[in-house]
Amino acid sequence: MNGETGKRNMRVFWKKSALAALLCAAMAAPVSAQESVKRPNIVVLVADDVGFSDFGAYGSEISTPNIDALAGRGTLFSNFHVSPVCAPTRAMLMTGVESHRAGIGNLPETLPESHQGHPAYLGRLRDDVVTLASLLKEAGYKTYMAGKWHLGHEPGALPNARGFDRSFALDASGADNWEKKSYLPLYDEAPWFEDGKPASLPEDFYSSEFFVDKMITYLEEDRQEGEPFFSYIGFQAVHIPIQAPRSFIEKYEGVYADGWDALRAARFEAVMERGLLPPGTKMGPMPDGLEDWESFTPEEQRYLAKSMAVNAGMLEAMDFHIGRLIDHLKETGDYENTIFVVMSDNGPEPNEPTEHFGFKEWLWSAGYSRDYETLGEKGSYAFIGSEFASAAAAPGAFFKLYAGEGGLRVPLIIAGEGVGQGRADAFSFVTDLTPTLLDLAGVTPAAEIGSVPVQEFAGRSLAPLLKGEAQSVRGPEDAVGIELGGNAALFRGDYKLTRNMPPLGDRIWRLYNIKADPGETEDLAAAEPELFADMMREYEAYAARVGVLDVPEGYEQMKRVAALTREKRMGRLLPWAGLAVLLLAGTIGGAVYYRRRRARG
Question: Rounded to whole angstroms, how far apart are CA atoms 439 and 328?
Fold first, then answer.
């Protein structure tokens, strides 16, 4: 045996010895340590402004095969509720506590001046709440996020400071999907951050594709063998501006030529055929003041239908890229041991920005086009409007911003390790997701993270429901409240107390049997005065407990956005106005001086 052969044999001997020692240590390790290796991965996928019936599994004509496949192997929820706008929903998803207690009782972009600085309306996550990411990280998970954050970008507010190991985050209500560009004159730019530092976007950026690419990169680069991971993607689909590659849009051209009434009827029929709502359910009414499809010219109808085709194409594109993430997890062997959550942050977007003063001029100055032929493509700006939003929310009443079921009841699918197949019809709320995921992961929340005590969750774990051990996680007397800009609701048992504010609401409190009448067609306030009064007292107790402030007289969320935009634009114009005054004064002064010189001869 020569020297090299001897050395090689010795290396083999020591490797085998080390392997044997590791095997013995693993066999002798405590059960809890072995179980931690087997903890499931968690993937949370949040769509933006997707209505109750927008996914194929819920009755849509839009092709979402990857989401539908998850629904087929997991639990599809028919009675899941969120806030009527994005940031409060995301705050509750991330913390398990009510949005006001988390510091985001309203959007920072719509906050009345009198609410600014109040602990319930900081516009960012409060320092004394702990995120799901922090709790999972403490338990040994690697944590990643990509996409829309919108929970604050002040020091200590971005994802890297709130429990995420890696993050690529947009901290705004939305942005362009093709380039680093603002979608509202309220923002100077689209504020993107990677790991807490300002970031740029690649030339070939498209939001849904990029978020999945970034997540796959994080999973590949940062994780060690055997570590479980928490992956959170906040998609921009289908938030304004709706944009998608032409190949996805073309599939839906002509699909919406019959207008929103036909689409609402088709969606309602499909939802009922799937048994997602009880027999006898009536379609929720469209809000007063919306337009009749037949009042538009054929050319206008063609344009409106194309806008809805862009919306459908954007949603299908999101589903396509979700499929790429799923394929990656299958290739790495992680798929079977992964829990998937697919949800929307609120109901469909009704706003039509071009109705606001000066917005068309801003679009032109920002380089946006509204041309029919390129609608949805790079450089374009599209939206679906209130009427098609009402169809996407079918059969619910109202849509995003409002406390009708069309704004609060959205799709939720949970699938994967430890989750049974079927449908869940019991009431559930977004604050339930943090305790649910911790439960499914086998993680007992730490008492505190750093020096911050972990607050008691407002939600309930849905694990007993997902495992078929219970039909509901709440009793008939358990109440859940929600408030946003004066729009409010309180759920208790089969009933819902609710108020919707102007411009489409009338400030009147109403009572519905939400189990029998999810379309909110029959107000029971007069017929059930004792129940109505009792639930009003419960709502007032909820509002006092979490810190709800009354909105000022005449307040409307979109009016507030318009006012802030005007203030911002005036702020930009003032320096130029000052310069113009100086130039004018100089010109006049020069002319006077010249005339005097001439007069003196």
Answer: 26
For residue 387, the cross-strand partners are none
Query: Average per-residue pLDDT in the chain?
Result: 89
Quick one: pLDDT at residue 567?
A: 73
Predicted pLDDT of residue 561: 79
Backbone phi, then psi, for 351, in 5-degree steps?
-65, 145
Beta bridge partners of 143: 230
Average pLDDT over residues 96-107: 96
Give the residue carrying structure tokens 């009402």: 390
Residue 86 known to be catalytic: yes
Going along 25-165, which residue ranges are E strands?
A: 41-47, 74-77, 80-81, 142-148
Query: Is the pLDDT score of 556 beyond 70?
Result: yes
Helix (H) or strand (E) holding 418: none
Report which of residues 11 and 548 the model is more confident about: 548
pTM: 0.89
Pure H helices in 194-259: 207-222, 246-250
Which of 86, 100, 153, 356 is the catalytic position?
A: 86
| Cα–Cα distance measured from residue 410 to residue 336, given in angstroms and rounded to the nearest whole number | 26
Which residues lie closer than 8 Å to 386 by C-beta, 6 or more apart?
A: 287, 290, 291, 350, 351, 352, 399
Q: In whole angstroms, what is the distance from residue 425 CA to residue 104 CA?
A: 28
Catalytic residue among 81, 100, 115, 150: 150
> Residue 513: beta bridge partners?
495
